[in-house]
Design brief:
Blueprint: H1 2-12, H2 23-44, H3 53-65, H4 72-96, H5 100-124, H6 131-155, H7 166-174, H8 186-210, H9 213-234
Helix pairs in contact: 1-8, 2-6, 2-8, 2-9, 3-4, 4-5, 4-6, 5-6, 5-9, 7-8, 8-9
Length: 245
């Protein structure tokens, strides 16, 4: 229990000597954002995810089989747009990766731009969004999360992917005492799961009671804050900003 609580504290409030600096809590915030946007897209855009591409591949299979409520076009749109977002993220990685602070700040600037477009679309569309607005939202949200995933992959904060939890859940069991391990990183892993869960819960509540615009607005605000925090924290070039740190 002591090790678990220490891992939780070090993830939320890293020590000054932590080699990833403020990135762990910022990645927890982005995991929360993922829960918000995936809840919004699944509940309001027609059973499609904008961050969980494993789910979309499965949904595509359902749609091809003729299952009710799933769309071939929506699933393919999300998959292709997410891939395009990852290409944009890769370009950011190529330009900014030597400095982690500027890297995340630039990535969040681009992601914020896509989310801002999504917020505008959500406010001017019907509830739920129909036809062109629906697909436009799928595109811009998938572009945003594709870029997020590409940049999180390069920054590589251990156990914090921000979008995928399958290996996180696997690690909790495989590394547990029952699995023959020592419970390594269980605190950080459970924080990541909790962030996704709470984001999805809040997103679902907001969507059900107010529509898609409020959760996307919150996602935008958090993303902007993550970018600003990364920029300010890395402005003096502390050790954590170096990729060899």
């Amino acid at each position: 229990m002591s090790q678990f609580l220490t891992e939780v504290r070090q993830t939320l409030v890293p020590d000054r000597s932590d080699r990833f600096g403020p990135l762990p809590p910022l990645f927890i915030a982005l995991t929360f954002v993922t829960g918000l946007v995936d809840a919004s897209s699944y509940l309001m855009l027609g059973h499609v995810f904008v961050a969980n591409m494993t789910g979309n591949v499965v949904f595509l299979g359902f749609a091809i089989a003729g299952a009710h409520g799933f769309s071939i076009a929506a699933s393919l749109t999300a998959l292709v747009s997410f891939g395009a977002g990852s290409v944009i993220g890769g370009r950011i990685v190529a330009r900014q990766s030597p400095h982690r602070g500027r890297h995340l700040a630039m990535a969040m600037t681009v992601q914020s731009a896509f989310l801002a477009i999504a917020v505008v679309l959500a406010f001017v569309s019907a509830n739920p969004p129909q036809s062109a607005f629906r697909y436009a939202l799928i595109v811009v949200l998938s572009l945003a999360t594709g870029g997020q995933n590409a940049n999180a992959r390069k920054l590589a904060v251990p156990e914090l992917t921000t979008t995928v939890l399958t290996m996180t859940v696997t690690g909790i069991g495989a590394d547990s005492a029952l699995g023959g391990g020592q419970g390594s990183k269980s605190g950080r892993r459970l924080l990541s799961i909790a962030a996704m869960f709470i984001g999805a819960l809040e997103g679902a509540v907001l969507v059900i009671h107010t529509g898609i615009a409020p959760p996307l607005t919150i996602a935008l605000a958090i993303t902007v804050l993550v970018g600003l925090t990364s920029y300010v924290a890395g402005r003096s070039d502390p050790p954590w900003t170096r990729t060899d740190g």
